[in-house]
């Protein structure tokens, strides 16, 4: 871990500490001297943005937990107590609720960036797979957090999602009962969700530690996808990338704070400002926006178990991406066909998001029901078509295109690419 | 090209928003003083709205997240603390147990929550033909007046407009509709679970007398009480917008400075 510096302690205390715990050497080697490709663009700043969001979520979450009551009779009112009576409680809660959405926006950009530049390919497969694990932990954490305010959508969302496990053959009902801590969603469920929602971010932080470790072994990928060949290709992480990341993080905070202060409830559901009522089912149960594509995949399969399998498969398939892509080149910058299908895939994911947002039998993007007879472009049908494409992309397009596409000439090294760009600039 | 077409049609559909459930109309888009990034509440309007709430709505609806003391909070109706004391004292509140172990009644204090009209939900239902009058504390955040991803982004969810539209949206059913009318229900195309609503039209001209001399038309009272409920749902709105302005200003300047530092550091470094 510390091969990139010639750290020499200069003070007496420094020497004393170094012989006992060489932590300053680690900081200098990994946090300052670390050789980083000189051509990283702003899409690479989302790693730092994500780390910042994790810290923001943990800090605001710890404060919220000081004022929140995990009991079905008091949870809703304790959240309103935070909004009304706790000093700046409204700010902390809006930061936490919108922070979750910002976390997901950043993670989606981060994942798509990894896909576009082939960052999942050798030697970064483990780095990529740890990333998928982090994403899974994020989803579980956010889901349990959304249940805590115990509003109508909290309750019914929890009901729909936990009910998915009942689709498992033979043991499904036992598993749901075990998850709920009873025969319905009740106080034990809320209590354990609170406990786990507090625990998971720390598991997440540990996984992030592994993610960074796995990043620092092969080093960063870069927009050309060409491996670092010489010292000329790199710059020390500090001050070049510390400052670039810091600028991007603060710019992202502007975006984040605009939501918090001027549209704090837009990304949530109005009906969650109504206390949970197990006797009144909302007209339309939908998850938070960041789950909508997966919700669409779940609903696309007519069979419940099939839907659950498809939904989990849609994320698990990401684990195999490093081996599905068989191209000798990483970056899609020099892979025109892959690039085209990448953007199709992005659009399909957005369509899946919309497909998950409406009532299945309504016309797509409309509030009007389609007739039961005949073929219509309903939310369900569009969801099915997009689901098909989602899996087709990974299972057919990626392996096939990466094998047959005619790549464009890639530069011999990062410095060559950088110099060519600088030359273009001058000319 | 096809992708662009899809994106355009997605954007268009989200923009137009489309209708709500069958037989339910989107809320009337009236404007309020508290809209937009700089909007603030109109104190006079909130004070009038409180009067409408207290004399009309509170007969059936609870509002149990709001205390009398909130009425003098900054950014709200801003009654004086003396006024709040006097207002609270007009109510009788059950308290206890005292040293003898008995419950007793006393005049309301500013620290008391708004008293609920019914002892429990069952009593409320039984007095209202089986329909539970919802708690109104958060109603303007819980009920969208209209839908549409892009529409709501620019215009908000229209919660206060929803309340206004329901209060002013009562109709006499025509002959055709009258045949469908369930007993004890009224016709209101703005009610979210409509068109039949359990609440009879609550407002009529001059049902309250405003202290500031404003004429108490149904339209005026509906506007005032909707604004009041916008405040009860989001009592820290003014503080939020003010702090938001300062925060964004600070962050914008900070971002610019960091950009210049970054530019300086990277100057002359090919990348």
What is the fold's blueprint, element by element?
The complex is a heterodimer of chains A (427) and B (271).
Chain A: H1 12-20, H2 23-32, E1 35-37, H3 46-67, H4 75-84, H5 89-116, H6 125-147, H7 152-163, H8 172-180, H9 187-216, E2 234-236, H10 237-262, H11 292-300, H12 304-316, H13 321-324, H14 336-355, H15 379-404, H16 414-426
Antiparallel strand pairs in A: 1-2
Helix pairs in contact in A: 3-5, 3-9, 3-10, 4-5, 5-6, 5-10, 6-7, 6-9, 11-12, 11-14, 11-15, 14-15
Chain B: H1 2-16, H2 43-55, H3 81-89, E1 92-95, E2 104-107, H4 121-127, H5 139-142, H6 149-155, H7 159-168, E3 170-171, H8 175-178, E4 186-188, E5 196-197, H9 218-233, H10 237-266
Helix pairs in contact in B: 2-9, 7-9
Low-confidence stretches of chain B: 1-19
Question: In what range is the share of β-strand residues of chain B?
Answer: 5-15%
SSE class of chain B: mainly alpha
- Please outline the major beta sheet of chain A: 2 strands, antiparallel
Helix content of chain B: 40-55%
Largest sheet of chain B: 3 strands, antiparallel
Strand order of the largest sheet of chain A: 1-2
Overall spatial form of chain A: globular
How does the overall form of chain B come out from the CA principal axes? globular
Radius of gyration of chain A: 24 Å
Mean pLDDT of chain B: 91
How many angstroms does the end-to-end distance of chain A come to? Answer: 42 Å
Specify the number of helices of chain B: 10
Name its key features.
heterodimer, A: 427 residues, two-stranded antiparallel ribbon, 2 strands, B: 271 residues, mainly alpha, three-stranded antiparallel β-sheet, 6% strand, disordered N terminus
Describe the structure.
The complex is a heterodimer of chains A (427) and B (271). Helix content of chain A is 62%, strand content 1%. With 427 residues, chain A is an all-alpha fold. In chain A, α14 packs antiparallel against α15 (379-404). By secondary structure, chain B is mostly helical. Chain B has 10 helices and 5 strands. In chain B, strands 3-4-5 form a 3-stranded antiparallel β-sheet. Chain B is globular. Mean pLDDT of chain B is 91; it is low at 1-19. Chains A and B meet through α4, α5, α10, α14 and α16 of A and α1, α6 and α10 of B.
């Amino acid at each position: 871990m510390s091969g990139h510096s010639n750290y020499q302690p200069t003070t007496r205390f420094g020497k004393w500490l170094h012989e006992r715990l060489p932590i300053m050497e680690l900081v200098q080697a990994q946090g300052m001297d670390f050789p980083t490709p000189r051509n990283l663009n702003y899409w690479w700043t989302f790693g730092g943005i994500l780390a910042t969001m994790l810290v923001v979520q943990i800090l605001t979450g710890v404060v919220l937990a000081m004022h929140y009551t995990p009991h079905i009779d008091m949870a809703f009112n304790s959240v309103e107590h935070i909004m009304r009576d706790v000093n700046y409680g409204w700010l902390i809660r809006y930061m936490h609720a919108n922070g979750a959405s910002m976390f997901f926006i950043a993670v989606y950009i981060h994942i798509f960036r990894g896909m576009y530049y082939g960052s999942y390919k050798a030697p970064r497969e483990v780095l990529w797979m740890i990333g998928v694990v982090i994403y899974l932990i994020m989803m579980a954490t956010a889901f349990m957090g959304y249940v805590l305010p115990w509003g109508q959508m909290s309750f019914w969302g929890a009901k729909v999602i936990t009910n998915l496990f009942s689709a498992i053959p033979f043991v499904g009902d036992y598993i749901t009962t075990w998850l709920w801590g009873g025969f319905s969603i009740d106080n034990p469920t809320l209590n354990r969700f609170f406990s786990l929602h507090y625990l998971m971010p720390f598991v997440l932080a540990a996984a992030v530690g592994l993610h960074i470790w796995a990043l620092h072994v092969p080093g960063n990928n870069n927009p050309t996808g060409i491996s670092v060949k010489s010292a000329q290709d790199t710059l020390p992480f500090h001050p070049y990338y510390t400052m670039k990341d810091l600028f991007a993080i603060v710019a992202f905070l502007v975006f984040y704070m605009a939501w918090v202060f001027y549209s704090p409830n837009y990304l949530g559901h109005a009906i969650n400002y109504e206390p949970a009522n197990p006797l009144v089912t909302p007209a339309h149960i939908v998850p938070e926006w960041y789950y909508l594509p997966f919700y669409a995949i779940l609903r696309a399969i007519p069979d419940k178990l099939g839907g659950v399998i498809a939904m989990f498969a849609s994320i698990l398939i990401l684990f195999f991406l490093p081996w599905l892509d068989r191209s000798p080149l990483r970056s899609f910058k020099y892979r025109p066909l892959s690039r085209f299908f990448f953007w199709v895939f992005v659009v399909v994911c957005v369509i899946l998001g919309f497909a998950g947002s409406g009532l299945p039998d309504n016309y797509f993007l409309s509030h009007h029901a389609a007739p039961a007879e005949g073929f219509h472009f309903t939310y369900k049908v569009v969801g099915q078509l997009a689901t098909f494409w989602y899996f087709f992309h990974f299972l057919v397009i990626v392996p096939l295109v990466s094998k047959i596409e005619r790549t464009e000439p890639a530069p011999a090294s990062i410095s060559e690419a950088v110099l060519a760009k600088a030359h273009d600039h001058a000319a | 090209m096809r992708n662009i077409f899809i994106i355009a049609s997605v954007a268009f559909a989200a923009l137009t928003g489309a209708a709500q459930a069958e037989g339910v109309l989107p809320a009337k888009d009236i404007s309020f003083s508290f809209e937009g990034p700089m909007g603030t509440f109109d104190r006079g309007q909130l004070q009038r709205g409180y009067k409408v709430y207290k004399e009309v709505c509170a007969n059936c609806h609870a509002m149990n997240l709001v205390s009398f003391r909130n009425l003098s909070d900054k950014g709200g109706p801003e009654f004086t603390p003396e006024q709040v004391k006097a207002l609270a004292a007009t109510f009788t509140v059950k308290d206890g147990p005292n040293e003898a172990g008995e419950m007793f009644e006393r005049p309301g204090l500013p620290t008391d929550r708004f008293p609920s009209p019914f002892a429990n939900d069952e009593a409320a239902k039984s007095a209202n033909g089986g329909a539970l009058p919802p708690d109104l504390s958060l109603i303007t955040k819980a009920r969208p007046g209209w839908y549409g991803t892009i529409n709501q982004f620019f215009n908000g969810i229209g919660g206060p407009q929803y309340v206004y539209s329901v209060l002013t949206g009562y109709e006499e059913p025509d002959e055709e509709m009258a045949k469908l009318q369930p007993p004890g229900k009224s016709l209101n195309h703005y009610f979210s679970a409509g068109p039949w609503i359990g609440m009879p039209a609550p407002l009529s001209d001059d049902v309250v007398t405003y202290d500031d001399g404003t004429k108490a038309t149904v339209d005026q009272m509906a506007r005032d009480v909707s604004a009041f409920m916008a405040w009860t749902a989001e009592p820290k709105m003014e503080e939020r917008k003010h702090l938001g302005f300062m925060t964004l200003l600070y962050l914008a300047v900070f971002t610019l400075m960091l950009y210049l530092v970054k530019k300086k550091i990277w100057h002359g470094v090919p990348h």
